[in-house]
Design brief:
This is Similar to Saccharomyces cerevisiae YOR115C TRS33 One of 10 subunits of the transport protein particle (TRAPP) complex of the cis-Golgi. Helix content is about 55%, strand content about 15%. It has five helices and four strands.
Length: about 180
């Protein structure tokens, strides 16, 4: 019977994940607008509130994915092993490719470089590269949340930021706390 069982590779459906990413920013805006309307407040939506909501969606997903995909493996020995897990195992499950480059200063700072980030490769506008990056920012908060949630589930507390001078090249900067 065991010979007949096939190995099942965990995968995340790319189309469903694309649709989730496309809808996550409008969803966050709707939730924040409803919350402020119910509280009786009026005015423009604060970018910090949108950032927090989108990043929290990603954080919860990253935390859950880390718990699922590391359930039957030994604990990681150090932070670098955790980063390698994100780059070589988790990233391909979510984005169908490994991180292109991982850099570290061996003092708690890591840079994950994806030179053709899947979601950003599909974004385009008739505007300058700087305006395109600005419009893409809310969509990059979600993967930042995924990374932070994964790190948190694996015992690494960190702050994240990203840089992109020209999409789809994106660098995620991770600063861990000891």
């Amino acid at each position: 019977m065991a010979d007949q069982q096939q190995l099942v590779t965990p995968q995340i459906n790319a189309s469903c994940f694309d649709l989730l990413i496309i809808e996550i920013v409008p969803l966050a805006l709707r939730v924040i607008n409803e919350t402020t309307a119910n509280a009786g407040a009026a005015g423009a939506v604060n970018d910090d509130d949108v950032y927090y909501k989108i990043e929290q969606f990603g954080f919860k997903l990253g935390r859950n994915l880390a718990e699922i995909f590391t359930r039957e493996r030994e604990r990681f020995q150090n932070q670098l092993d955790v980063m390698k897990f994100i780059c070589k195992e988790l990233w391909p499950l979510i984005f169908k490719k490994q991180i292109d480059n991982l850099k570290t200063n061996h003092r708690g700072t890591y840079v994950l470089i994806d030179s053709n980030f899947t979601f950003c490769s599909k974004m385009s506008t008739n505007q300058s590269a700087q305006n395109t990056v600005k419009q893409a920012m809310p969509y990059l908060w979600f993967p930042m949340g995924i990374i932070r949630g994964t790190l948190s589930a694996l015992g690494v507390e960190a702050s994240l930021s990203f840089e992109s001078n020209h999409l789809p090249n994106v660098s995620f900067n991770i600063h861990t706390t000891r």
